[in-house]
Specification:
Strands 5-6-4-7-8-3-11 form a seven-stranded parallel sheet, sandwiched between helices. The protein has a seven-stranded parallel sheet with strand order 21-22-20-23-24-12-25, sandwiched between helices. Strand 9 and strand 10 (about 275-280) form a beta hairpin. About 35% of the residues lie in helices and about 20% in strands. It is of the alpha/beta class and about 1000 residues long. It folds into five domains: about 15-70 and about 80-285, P-loop containing nucleotide triphosphate hydrolases (Rossmann fold), CATH 3.40.50.300; about 310-390, no CATH class; about 395-595, 3-Layer(aba) Sandwich (Rossmann fold), CATH 3.40.50; about 725-810, no CATH class; about 845-1000, no CATH class. Helix 1 runs antiparallel to helix 2, helix 12 packs across helix 14 (about 445-460) and helix 14 packs antiparallel against helix 15. It has 31 helices and 41 strands.
């Protein structure tokens, strides 16, 4: 097949024309020497800049200060010998094509023939070189676009160090320097990665055995050509960075063209005026993400995360990080709030130490790359599983979900009208060995598991009523199942295996092979499932990637747009034609820790637009005009209609109680604001029945209370507590028998040990230690300090005093059992002794996203039902209730939801693990209900938080729960001391919530 590039696409020709027009108007004089470019004026033509911006309609962005020359710190002041033009183009819209065509246009109109392209990474360099060198690309610019020139690509590569002999200058630099403008049909492009300029002396050394003209150093020769510098991915070479300074100071370009989807940010202003701005210099084109999605220039995104069978959410997982054969395994536990903790478990240890849902499950054996659990499950290094359903492999579930989406898309693409589209899927994984195998034999457990799951899925697809052609392709897949997947990882570059080398070659350089249904021998090409370890990022893409599955995290700092960028390009059919007349979607599969990916992607895209932040309960005059036009009604009549129905007041502010009703009757208000079309970025999970709707108008009534409750507080104690615990800890250690061998009574006599299991005869009493790991003394102290928050030196002193007072200690007693007893004894002592001494202090930490609000403070549309309650009763809750469903955990909670109280303005269940009050019981605490109430005279508003316990009497509440409630009392006292009064009450079965509120209202 041959890739066909489209000509004269408006979003690509506009930036080409813009750059050429500005440069053409800014030329001062022709080139002085045959190896040089024409010379530009000291300043680019302001008139031409204005005309170009006006033509592409970004003048309004200039007037709104999107393009402003901010004062930079001294170290990153712009150098005087170059000018900068910025061209913003979203990922997948043809940025490389645009700057390549700009090179041709500048040569045609202005006579420039010396260009440097600087890229940040080797993959981008390889991709750019491949594009410029492609025969189809050369034919396109020559035959289709009408340029009668060709690019001489001078590829700068590192040179091998020579100990002896001649030191030759890089040949690519010589070829670039001596290229003359007298060769009318030649353009010279020096392509390099920035590491070649910032690291080493390849271009700056003076001891080469030959000169370029009069120059000893390559950089001086390059600079003398008066080059145009093109920077790809400017966010990776921000002004002020080492790489940017090296490029500009060494090459001294007279013009810099920066092309990117992302531009660097600068912090400007001080104090309250401090904020971030994009470091645009002279922005002349802005194809942002919102426009790219909305205009169908790239694929849309359909995010989905894995859910457990039965609709249960995957809120916790355990990953096998590494193993020591026959001894131990390192496991990472990720909790519901996306926090992680690493544990080392030895053979015989209980996984209940990680999570209570794993109580009774033991680590039974550890082999070279596998752990075996006591329930018979085997887990591989790099594999995840759920604590609450530990037989379910997270990777298996995600792979099955990704393959389901892949074949849905593939079936549609194959059977479409016209030529079929080859459909690819890309998997990012965490462990190379899991795919390649420990000896790089392409036999890793994940690869085997994937092929097993793929085989089952293809058989399912064959059972469908498909076209004969697609059935043949599926059968060919089964016949060549091993060849259906391939991987590329950084370590593959040093691998000598021929099969691996072929995989790397086709993924990195064989774009046309990946897009073809047949190979060069006419046989079916079934390769369409690609694996990598996030190595394939900027610089690699394939237009026919329709599914990306993240079996690993990419890190929190990477832009969400960059993550999906590998699959955003519009696809091509089997003849290489770009298909732009359909609405394509990229399936983006993530794990539960990124369940809000779609919201973050939308926020990132809309954040670029620098829209004015509006309250979710406000509309503007412009919004009313837009909706009136949509409804073909007079604006004034429409405004009167809204007022008559009580939706807005004279100031055009929405009446909060009517907000939800207004959106029902006038849904156009959802769509009138600028930003990305929400149909182009969707969250497939949001339509599931496990979400419940938040009534936004009701939330506004408790917004202030919610904000106060989500402020972070730290727990501390009175100063005398240190002396108290230091004095009592030795007696605690002795009295609680912390250090003793575990005593086990039985009516049998011990015969022998088999591994960790004791086998006994009848009639004996034995004292022995089972499954007990021994610690060195200092390690024991560190663990004890970590879990009790008692300093190491205090713990050491207490143990010494306990030993001196008659506590018999041996080295064997510093074991896991002793550590567990010590932690338990200290926790019990804290609960009994410290509740009255606990204090809370507000931390200097601003909460961003909460369970009910987004990072920007806007209320979310919905919340996961499991956060509110595991059960859901039928019917519609009262209008004052915060949610639209009866989600609850107990009958007492359901009774509270159904109880309507006149004085209550709004009430709702507090999402679990949202208000985290630290307690002395080594855990956090979150109450159950939140109420906003007014007194009968309306003069005083009461904020009430209620802890609901479905016990018949208070004495049934456990000591641990009572400790948490006591700590909560102190927490709300601290909140009151900070100026915000909240009434905290405890409720049991015998107390109705109405009685609690009545007592407070009338009290």
């Amino acid at each position: 097949m041959e890739l066909k590039l489209e000509n004269n696409l408006p979003h690509q020709t506009a930036p080409v024309e813009g750059v050429a027009a500005i440069v053409e108007a800014s030329i001062q004089e022709p080139a002085k020497a045959s190896h040089q470019n024409p010379l530009l004026k000291n300043q680019l033509s302001g008139e031409a800049l204005h005309a170009v911006r006006q033509k592409v309609n970004i003048l309004d962005k200039v007037t709104k200060h999107r393009i402003t020359h901010y004062m930079l710190p001294d170290k990153i002041k712009a150098l005087p010998h170059h000018r900068i033009l910025d061209i913003k183009m979203e990922t997948g819209t043809g940025k490389t094509y645009v700057y390549t065509r700009t090179i041709f246009e500048l040569h045609k109109r202005c006579g420039f023939n010396k260009f440097i392209i600087a890229v940040p990474t080797l993959p981008i360099k390889a991709g750019t070189a491949s594009f410029i060198s492609e025969p189809e690309v050369k034919r396109h610019f020559n035959s289709v676009c009408g340029y009668d020139t060709e690019i001489e690509l001078c590829l700068l590569e590192p040179q091998k160090q020579k100990k002896k002999g001649r030191q030759n200058m890089p040949s690519s630099v010589g070829h670039f320097f001596y290229g003359t403008h007298h060769a009318k049909h030649k353009i010279y492009v020096l392509l390099l990665n920035t590491q070649l300029v910032t690291n080493g002396k390849l271009l700056t050394r003076e001891d080469y055995d030959q000169m370029l003209g009069e120059f000893h150093r390559p950089v001086d020769a390059i600079a003398d050509t008066k080059p145009v510098l093109i920077i790809d991915e400017p966010h990776r070479m921000e002004r002020g960075s080492k790489s940017y300074a090296a490029l500009v100071e060494n090459f001294r370009p007279q013009l810099v063209l920066r092309y990117g989807a992302t531009f660097p940010e600068l912090t400007v202003g001080k104090g309250k005026n401090k904020h971030l701005v994009k470091d645009y210099q002279e922005l002349i084109y802005d194809l942002n993400a919102a426009d790219s999605f909305n205009q169908g220039l790239i694929k849309g995104v359909a995010k989905e995360h894995l859910e457990l069978p039965g609709g249960k959410k995957a809120e916790k997982k355990v990953k096998v990080l590494s193993v020591t054969k026959g001894d131990s395994a390192n496991l990472k536990y990720t909790s519901h709030d996306n926090t992680g903790k690493t544990f080392t478990l030895h053979v015989g240890d209980s996984l209940g130490f990680i999570d209570s849902d794993l109580d009774g499950v033991m680590l039974e054996a550890v082999s070279k790359n596998t752990i075996t659990l006591s329930n018979g499950q085997e887990k591989q290094t790099g594999e995840d599983f759920f604590p609450d359903q530990y037989g379910v492999s997270y990777q298996e579930g995600m792979i099955e979900l990704a393959l389901m989406r892949h074949f849905e898309t593939e079936r549609e693409n194959f059977c479409r009208e016209g030529l079929p589209i080859k459909t690819l899927a890309l998997f990012f994984i965490d462990s190379i060995d899991s795919f390649r195998g420990p000896e790089s034999k392409n036999d890793g457990w994940l690869r085997k598991k994937f092929i097993e799951i793929l085989t089952a899925r293809v058989n399912k697809e064959l059972a469908r009523d498909n076209t004969p052609e697609y059935r043949d392709y599926l059968k060919a897949t089964l016949d060549n199942i091993e060849n259906s997947c391939a991987g590329y990882f950084s370590q593959d570059n040093n691998d000598s295996d021929e099969n691996i080398a072929n995989e790397v070659k086709v993924i990195l350089h064989g774009k046309k092979d990946l897009l073809s249904f047949t190979d060069d021998k006419g046989k079916p090409n079934v390769l369409r499932f690609l694996f990598s370890k996030w190595t394939l990022k900027e610089g690699w893409d394939n237009p026919n990637v329709f599914t990306i599955c993240k079996l690993r995290s990419s890190g929190s700092e990477i832009s969400k747009l960059q993550e999906v960028g590998r699959g955003l390009r519009l696809p091509v059919d089997s003849a290489g034609n770009r298909i732009s007349d359909s609405s394509f979607m990229l399936n983006y599969i993530v794990d539960f820790t990124e369940k809000d990916f779609a919201n973050k992607l939308v926020a990132e895209i809309n954040g670029e637009l620098e829209l004015e932040q509006k309250s979710p309960l406000s509309i503007t005059a412009e919004d009313i005009i837009k909706v009136a036009e949509k409804r073909n009604i007079n604006v004034n009549k429409f405004f009167i209609e809204l007022m008559t129905k009580g939706y807005v007041d004279f100031d055009k502010k929405v009446v909060s109680e009517k907000f939800d009703d207004m959106l029902v009757n006038y849904p156009e208000f959802k769509d009138v604001t600028d930003g990305v079309n929400t149909n182009r970025i969707i969250n497939r999970n949001s339509n599931r029945s496990d979400k419940i709707h938040i009534r936004k108008a009701k939330f506004e009534e408790l917004r202030e209370l919610w904000a106060q409750l989500n402020k972070k507080y730290v727990l501390y104690f009175d100063k005398e507590i240190d002396q108290k615990i230091e004095a009592e800890l030795p007696f605690l250690i002795k009295d609680k028998h912390v250090f003793s061998l575990q005593s086990i009574e039985s009516s049998r006599k011990v015969l022998e040990f088999e591994g960790n299991v004791a086998v006994a005869n009848e009639g004996s009493h034995a004292e022995l230690t089972l499954h007990n790991r021994h610690y060195g003394y200092y390690t024991f102290l560190k663990h004890a300090s970590r879990y009790t928050n008692i300093p190491v030196h205090t713990m050491h002193k207490a143990i010494c005093e306990a030993a001196n007072s008659g506590c018999q200690l041996t080295n064997e007693m510093f074991n896991e059992s002793s550590l567990t007893r010590l932690i338990g004894a200290v926790d019990d002592w804290k609960c009994n002794q410290l509740v009255g001494f606990v204090r809370y202090k507000q931390a200097n930490y601003k909460v961003k996203e909460t369970k009910l609000t987004n990072a920007d403070g806007t209320v979310k549309d919905e919340v996961v039902q499991a956060y509110i309650g595991n059960k859901c009763a039928p019917g519609n809750p009262p209008l004052k209730y915060l949610y639209n469903a009866y989600a609850h955990d107990s009958e007492l909670e359901l009774q509270n939801i159904k109880t309507e109280i006149d004085e209550v303005i709004v009430y709702g269940k507090i999402p679990s693990h949202s208000i985290c009050i630290p307690t002395v019981a080594s855990s956090n605490y979150s109450p159950d209900f939140i109420y906003v109430v007014k007194k009968t005279d309306g003069t005083k508003e009461l904020n009430i938080v209620i802890e609901t316990k479905a016990y018949d009497k208070e004495s049934n509440i456990s000591p641990d729960e009572n400790t948490k409630i006591s700590c909560a009392d102190e927490f709300f006292k601290a909140m009151a001391a900070n100026g915000y009064n909240v009434h905290f009450r405890k409720q049991i079965n015998s107390t109705g919530v109405k009685n609690i509120i009545d007592d407070l209202v009338t009290g």
